[in-house]
Design brief:
19% of the residues lie in helices and 24% in strands. It is of the alpha+beta class. A 5-stranded antiparallel beta sheet has the order 7-6-13-12-14, covered by helices on one side. β2 and β3 form a beta hairpin. The longest helix has 13 residues, at 227-239. The chain is globular.
Length: 453
């Protein structure tokens, strides 16, 4: 016989007796600190006489550890505060092979993250890290890293944002199913790609082809998707700081680099997190995933949860990057950089219609037959295709048909405003912005030529 106090709070689906004891099945552990008392009576199976009686006390707190962090919604600090069972825990990252203290090495799910070799033909694991036959170089199969299942919760109240992680299913928590990630950035070619040590990453390929190359490895393979944010939560709860470069190492991010480094620089760290030498000239690794930042620009979005290519209402071409984000981060003192007054982000300046027309004539923007077409490239870059093409036609002396409107241009002078120019030519500020791809109506440059009709 088995009697359980607080049974309602345990969400017990059934109990099952078997030789030697009882099994208690619960669908969801309580998200609170309660004590559970199991009262038992042991009977002789032959004559059902009482053999023993007693109680077993178990704390639910011991059953469902919750590791959490929180961050004030008004703070400018990158640091998070450890809460619940994470209070007092320490997480350090290695530099090379020098051992450091990291309490999360023995805490699930971090403790069970592991790299392994996988045969894509036989569709089976061939070795785990630590096995004698495990290989980093791909000779025993793809090198992948397994992230075990766990439960998480991320939410806000009026003062804080919270991230909580638990091994068990708790009220309000979401299950992250087990999944795997390539230990290394994709290498190889269009005919076959790999995750293996010792090779340069594959670059200069658009997002569609990268996605197809990954899928060609077999069912279940694809490009990095929203699971990146699962990895982010694991990192944040472990290190409690948005500034991952200050915690894990800068990674291969020095602005003087002109080519990527080969994969495998962090093989010496095994399953530990950190960097090869602590500088910005070598790779970093987070629990078996090398160069999760740094080395090369990486696409994301295999199966986005938000299936849209619009950000803040603007269509975004995911095949190209238009901003120099490293320079922006450095200029603003983000990600561990010191803000520099004389360092300006190298976000490309918006080109004038005249400049674009000259580039089109020189063949820099393709044609209607290229892939992508000239129109697609100009519009993806945020320019007004028709305004540019009209100017091209003018420069080349192409006569317009009677159905075409006659475009007129004006060279901006010092002291001009769009409001003033709009009044001069009987148009509106909105129309000028549309014709000339002006994002900020208060920011125009003397000397630039803009379309006014």
């Amino acid at each position: 016989m088995l009697d359980i106090e607080n049974q309602a709070k345990l969400n017990i689906s059934y109990t099952e007796s078997y030789t030697g004891g009882f099994k208690v099945i619960t669908t969801e552990l309580p998200n609170e600190e309660i004590s559970i008392t199991f009262k038992y009576s042991l009977l002789n199976s032959d004559d059902e006489n009482l053999v023993a009686r007693g109680t077993i006390n178990v704390s639910a707190k011991e059953l469902n550890k919750v590791y959490g962090i929180r961050r004030s919604l008004t703070t400018s600090s990158s640091a998070w505060e450890r809460i619940k069972d994470a209070v007092g825990l320490v997480a350090n990252a290695q530099v090379g092979t020098t051992a450091v203290r990291n309490d999360f090495d023995s805490i699930y799910p971090w403790s069970d993250i592991i790299s392994y070799n996988y045969d894509t033909t036989a569709k089976q694991v061939t070795a785990y890290y630590g096995d004698p036959t495990f290989k980093f170089d791909g000779s025993n199969g793809e090198v992948l890293t397994k992230i075990p299942e766990f439960y998480w919760r991320r939410y806000r109240d009026t003062n804080y944002e919270y991230i909580l992680i638990s091994k068990n299913k708790l009220a309000g928590f979401v299950k992250s199913e087990e999944f795997s990630v390539g230990r290394y950035t994709m290498s190889g070619s269009s005919s076959r790609v790999y995750s293996r040590s010792g090779y340069a990453p594959l670059t200069n390929v658009n997002i569609t082809n990268f996605r197809n190359y990954a899928r060609n490895l077999g069912a279940g393979f694809g490009q990095m998707d929203w699971h990146y944010f699962i990895l982010q939560m694991l990192y944040l709860v472990e290190y409690a700081d948005y500034n991952s470069q200050s915690k894990l190492g800068k990674g291969y991010t020095n602005s003087s680099h002109t080519a990527p480094v080969n994969s495998g620089q962090c093989d010496v760290l095994g399953m530990k997190s950190g960097s090869r030498d602590g500088t910005d000239n070598t790779s970093m690794i987070y629990r078996g995933i090398e160069d999760i930042f740094g080395n090369v620009w990486q696409f994301g979005g295999e199966t986005n949860r938000i299936r849209s290519n619009k950000i803040a209402g603007y269509t975004v071409d995911q095949n190209y990057a238009y901003k120099d984000f490293p320079a922006i981060m450095k200029s603003k003192g983000l990600n561990g950089f010191s803000a520099s007054g004389n360092t300006q982000p190298s976000t490309p300046k918006t080109k004038s219609i005249d400049e674009l027309a000259d580039e089109v004539i020189a063949g820099k923007w393709g044609t209607k037959d290229t892939n992508p077409t000239r129109k697609q490239r100009l519009e993806a870059s945020g320019y007004n295709y028709q305004a540019v093409q009209d100017r091209v036609n003018e420069k080349l002396g192409v006569k317009k048909t009677t159905t075409q409107s006659s475009a007129q241009y004006y060279t901006i002078k010092s002291g001009d405003t769009l409001s003033k120019i709009a009044k001069m030519y009987g148009t509106t500020i909105a129309q000028l912005c549309s014709w000339n791809n002006i994002k900020n109506a208060n920011l125009i440059y003397a000397g630039n030529k803009i379309r006014v009709k």
